[in-house]
Every structure is written in C-alpha cells, then in structure tokens.
Write a structure and sequence with these properties.
Keywords: Membrane, Transmembrane, Transmembrane helix. The protein is mostly helical and 180 residues long. The chain has one domain (2-179). Helices cover 76% and strands 4% of the residues. The chain has 7 helices and 2 strands. Strands 1-2 form a two-stranded antiparallel ribbon. Strand 1 (115-118) and strand 2 form a beta hairpin. The chain starts with a helix and ends with a helix.
Length: 180
C-alpha cells in the first residue's frame, strides 16, 4: 500500500515538475528578451548604473530579480509534504498507541461501559451497547491524526515560505548596485 502511495506521488510530482520546467523555459525566453530591452533602456537613460556591467551579467541579475519564484517554492512545499506525510502519520500512530497505553486517551472498551447513545444524545451510564460505542470511540485516533497532519502541513509551509522571503531579491537597481 505504501509503495502504491509513493508511486502515485512520484507520478504526480513528475508530471508537475515537467510542467514546471516547460513553464520555466518559456519564462526564461521572456526574461532574456526583457533583459535585452531593459539593458538598452538603462544604457541610454542611466549609463552610470550600468558602468562596468556587460549585457550577460545584467541578464543574470535581471533574471534573478524578475523570474517568478513562487511556483517552484510551492512545488517544493507540496513535494516535501507528500513524501514525508507517511512518516508523520507513523509517528502520530506510535504516539497515539503510547497515549492509549498510558491512559491519556481512554480505551474504547472502557469508555463504552460509561456511555449510552440515545435519541437524547450521549449519556454517562454504567452499561451500554459495546459495539456501537467502540466504533465511535476508536475514531479518536483519527482526530489526532488529522490535526497532526494539518499541523505538519503548516510547519512545512512555514519553513518553505520563510526561505522564500529570506531569499527574496531586491529591486533591479539594488541588485545592479550590489553586484558591483
């Protein structure tokens, strides 16, 4: 089952990455053309800014400033999440098992003896229908699994977006001046 999961994830990520690379090639062509126009414009409008900078070096700076970075970072965040999610769920399942054995999460059989389902709701009693209540109470682990996966997604996305903003380039003028 896990092998199937990883094969499907690999297929999805491969298709996404292929689309991302095709899109990146198109963007690179547009960036090269835009850099050429911008270089000519700045060479006439502000020649002091470009002093000591050839067109190829300017194109690299222009690409660093103008190339959209969000799609690649989004791909990275989703890839990290999908690849490591089974590990996170395994850790969560182990934690839930430990919590059940130590009494932090009550055992379904224990709780089923104390609860009764009726049309009026759930009531605390000494005896109840074990089968129905055990099915409900066994879902408590699912509650923790869901929220641990949600928290894991927030942590992964936070880490990727922190890197995204930390590596954000300045304006074209700032980057040209910084490159000197």
């Amino acid at each position: 089952m896990l092998l199937t999961y990883y094969l499907v994830v690999l297929l999805i990520l491969a298709v996404w990455y292929g689309g991302l690379r095709l899109w990146q090639r198109k963007i690179d062509e547009e960036i090269t053309e835009g850099a050429r126009f911008e270089y000519e414009h700045l060479r006439q409008a502000d020649p002091d800014l470009l002093k000591g900078l050839d067109e190829d070096a300017f194109r690299k700076i222009f690409a660093r400033v103008e190339t959209p970075r969000a799609p690649a970072y989004t791909f990275a965040a989703v890839a990290v999440f999908l690849v490591t999610a089974p590990l996170m769920l395994a850790v969560t399942a182990i934690t839930i098992g430990i919590m059940e054995r130590t009494g932090v999460i009550p055992q379904p059989a224990e709780q089923a003896q104390r609860l009764k389902l009726s049309a009026d709701g759930i009531q605390l009693v000494r005896t109840a229908d074990l089968e129905a209540l055990q099915l409900i109470l066994q879902g408590w682990g699912g509650f923790f699994s869901f929220f641990s996966l949600l928290l894991f997604w927030v942590v992964v996305f936070y880490a990727v977006m922190r890197r995204y903003h930390a590596r954000r380039p300045g304006s074209l003028r700032e980057e040209v001046l910084r490159s000197r």
